[in-house]
Amino acid sequence: MIKAYLAGPDVFRPDALAWAEAARKQCYAAGVKALIPLDNDAYTAAGIYAHNVAMIRAADVVLANLIPFRGAEPDSGTCFEVGYALALGKPVFGYLAEAGCCAERVARWQGRPLDVRNDRRYDSAGQLVEDFGLPLNLMLAIPATIVQGGLGEALAACLSSLP
Fold first, then answer.
1. Within a 13 Å sphere around the CA of 98, how many CA atoms are in the beta-carbon half?
2. DSSP secondary structure code for residue 11 in this structure
3. Are 38 and 11 in contact (CB under 8 A)?
4. Are 65 and 102 in contact (CB under 8 A)?
5. Which of 108, 109, 126 has the alpha carbon at shortest distance from 117?
6. 33: nearest Cα among 161, 155, 162
7. Would you write out the chain's pLDDT as a tens digit for each of its 163 residues?
8. What is the distance between the alpha carbons of residues 155 and 31, in angstroms, rounded to a whole number?
9. Three-state SS for 129?
């Protein structure tokens, strides 16, 4: 049975324990053992960090919820976990609920179209918005497999990639 670390901001949900149990069952039904950040007794920042990176090291793959969190971009802790897993050579399968590219997501989040100057797109603060047609920033979208949907779609993509 492969082990998958479940990265994402789901640990902040009001129903986080119920979410974790449902995710664990969904993974188990697919033949995957879920390693969930809530499965520890650490309560300090340093303890939680140490536990989570140990679980990523123990995992075969990472399944990452990359939905926008508190803005137009994924959760920063999840981005670290993805990068850490990639640095260890582990495959990462991320998921987004909505289709579309990064630039479209920023425009939706700011509630108005991006400014276009010289074929480049800028947000309402005048900052350049990456526009390669990728679903996320290239540093996530190039090394990780990104699927539209949820945990089930990420599980399916992961399992279909196995030899």
1. 15
2. G
3. yes
4. no
5. 126
6. 155
7. 999 999 999 999 999 999 999 999 999 999 999 999 999 889 899 999 999 999 999 999 999 999 999 988 999 999 999 999 999 999 999 999 988 888 998 898 889 999 999 999 999 999 999 989 999 999 999 999 999 999 999 999 999 998 7
8. 10
9. coil
E strand or H helix that includes residue 84: helix 76-87
Q: What are phi and psi of 43, to 5 degrees?
A: -125, -5
Amino acid letter, residue 106: V
Residue 63 Cα to chain centre, angstroms: 7
pTM of the model: 0.93
At a CB cut-off of 8 Å and minimum separation 6, what does 51 contact? 37, 40, 42
| ∠ Cα 41 70 151 (to 5°) | 60
Backbone angles phi and psi of 95, in degrees to 5: -135, 145
